[in-house]
Specification:
five-stranded parallel sheet; 15 helices; about 40% helix; single chain; 10 strands; 3 domains; Rossmann fold; alpha/beta
């Protein structure tokens, strides 16, 4: 699939076999796509002045988000792997063309697609606010509305750190993001942004590339902080439990990006290589890379606040599909439910499919439930290491022994959940 991603001022609106993507504007036609229609005004209103290459990185991320939504996996030869050719308008095309192989490698790992990137001049520059604001915070944290980022933000605030928290606007989570930011630490500075990616129908929903826009938003804002302007390296906290970050294939059929890789250490290492090449002084930190979700809950520094806010958090991969309720049976829901059991606190979350052990296709027979069950059986029959296989074999992964132990503990948490509900 070919895409031309550039501001509306650049011509070439109609090219055979090319999807025109209008960056920082409206599509203007049902056969075109768009992204970033509101983000320039949002950054300007906040008074922020980001690093030039951080702004270009946002253009790249938005282009990738459009491609991920517009490219239908059902149309690929194997029903999954797609091939993309992207032309993206940026302000420094020479630099980005030199960095294109690193970006392509990172995206290939993230989505298991083939990416070919070419950068052209004419990209939109960052907005120039009437009065530049340099926020005093010395770090940024991603706050999604999920349980892990909630715990991470509570821990940072309890330790005396006051991060500037960044959220991607998502239907069903926007209000809880605002509430969490208002409540934690007596109130944290909070910025919500949206890529507003719009593509012609039909739309692919696998969303394997989504972490790139979360990171791009966090990096963009990190470069606007006063410490960054003064020459400091600014930490960007990505708080996700290690089990979901690695997301080991539960069965032999769940390989590659069939299991999401949004915070996988291999991807984040490749992404940090890009930041270093761009001389963007932002350090991605993953403080819970060696923790299970249950351990994150048990060890949270403010247990009273966590008990109050945790039930409102979102974990489900199908939250919107079930009218903003947790399905209870997808892998993230199972990990959440297992974590509450490990925490030892009641789980007041309403699950659409509560009785996991019920012997029908909607409960114990559902694919994700069966996959977890098969993983548990595989570790009993062939041992944990045989089940794990080469999930930790990627060259940029460090601390393999610690990660292996964490994955063992995470799978054990899921085993307790399945035992409770009698899943066979």
């Amino acid at each position: 699939m070919r895409l031309l991603c550039a501001p509306g001022e650049i011509g070439r609106l109609h090219e055979a076999d090319t999807l025109r993507v209008v960056l920082y504007g409206q599509a203007g036609s049902p056969d075109r796509a768009s992204a970033g229609a509101a983000v320039r005004n949002d950054i300007r209103k906040e008074g922020l002045a980001p690093h030039r290459r951080a702004w270009d990185l946002l253009s790249v991320a938005m282009s990738v988000m459009v491609a991920d939504a517009a490219g239908l996996r059902t149309g690929s030869p194997d029903g999954w792997t797609r091939e993309f050719e992207l032309e993206i308008a940026v302000t420094e095309p020479d630099f980005w063309n030199g960095a294109a192989p690193v970006i392509a490698d990172a995206l290939a790992f993230l989505t298991t697609d083939r990416w070919h990137l070419r950068f052209i001049p004419g990209g939109a520059a960052a907005p120039e606010p009437a009065r530049v604001v340099r926020p005093p915070q010395d770090c940024v944290a991603l706050l999604s509305g999920g349980l892990d980022s909630l715990i991470g933000t509570i821990d940072l605030a309890t330790a005396g750190t006051r991060p500037l928290v960044i959220s991607k606007i998502v239907r069903g989570d926007t209000e809880k993001q605002e509430d969490f930011a208002r409540t934690i630490g007596g109130g944290l500075r909070h910025i919500q942004l949206n890529d507003n990616a719009v593509v012609p129908a039909p739309k692919d929903t696998s969303q394997r590339a989504r972490s790139i826009i979360f990171l791009a938003f966090g990096i963009l804002v990190a470069t606007t902080l006063a410490p960054y302007k003064a020459g400091a390296t600014v930490p960007l906290y990505v708080c996700e439990n290690g089990f979901i970050a690695i997301n080991p294939p539960l069965t032999g059929s769940r390989v590659g990006s069939l299991s999401t890789r949004t915070a996988h250490p291999q991807f984040l290492s490749l992404f940090e290589d890009l930041l270093n090449a761009a001389d963007i002084r932002v350090e991605i930190r993953t403080p819970y890379a060696e923790k299970t979700k249950g351990e994150m809950l048990r060890e949270c520094a403010d247990q009273q606040l966590l008990r109050t806010l945790a039930p409102r958090s979102t974990s489900c991969g199908r939250f919107q599909k079930y009218n903003y309720h947790h399905c209870g049976r997808c892998v993230p829901c199972q990990v959440r439910r297992a974590a509450f059991l490990a925490w030892g606190q009641p789980d007041p979350t309403e699950y659409v499919f509560e009785a996991l052990g019920r012997d029908d296709e909607k409960h114990a027979g559902f694919d994700d439930v069966r996959s977890v069950g098969m993983a548990l059986v595989a570790t009993e029959d062939g041992g944990f290491r045989n089940w794990l296989g080469n999930a930790l074999a990627w060259p940029l992964i460090g601390e393999r022994d610690a990660l292996q132990d964490m994955l063992r503990r995470g799978l054990a948490e899921l085993g307790v959940l399945h035992a409770k509900y009698g899943v066979k």
